[in-house]
Amino acid sequence: MDNAFRIFYRNFYFKTGGFIPSAPLNQNLYPGDFFQIVNGEMLVLGNIFQKGIVHKDDVEFGYGLKLNPASWEFSDGLSKPYSGRGSGQGTLEDFEFSKQILAFEKEGSFFFKATDPTAARILNWNDLQQELIIKMTQTYYSFRDLYIVTEVASAADWTLAVAGSKKAELEISTDSEN
Known about the structure:
Layout: H1 6-15, E1 33-38, E2 41-47, E3 61-66, E4 73-76, E5 78-89, E6 94-104, E7 110-115, E8 118-122, H2 125-139, E9 147-148, E10 151-154, E11 157-162, E12 169-174
Antiparallel strand pairs: 1-2, 1-9, 3-8, 4-7, 5-6, 6-12, 7-11, 8-10
């Protein structure tokens, strides 16, 4: 895992109540996926339903479960030294814009926000876990270090900015209000 993202990953786990972002960030994970972490990245090895280890009929799923939106907006080492509106002249007409500067204290400082977070989860995980431990460590496989996805979160949209160096800044300008 890139050192710049280490602070973000740690905060993400604590602020969201135990969720971890996929690594790499654009990798999709689904309930039942099992993986190992190798060099800071998730190496997906399969899915307990596709491999027939657990039958879907034995599992209760919950979809579209609302998550607390306040837990999905957080930052570390961030300040906003400037936020305001301005106007300019284009070639055809005048225009107004909003401008904001985000200042990051150190490498790895970040800003994260997700809107409308929802979850899909295996509701009866407690009924399955002991059987799965035996199947994944003795019957089907002999894993000693393995993660199984029991719940996934998704958002309508999300934003992440991570500083690659200390005293980094991000300038955002837009012609819309927010």
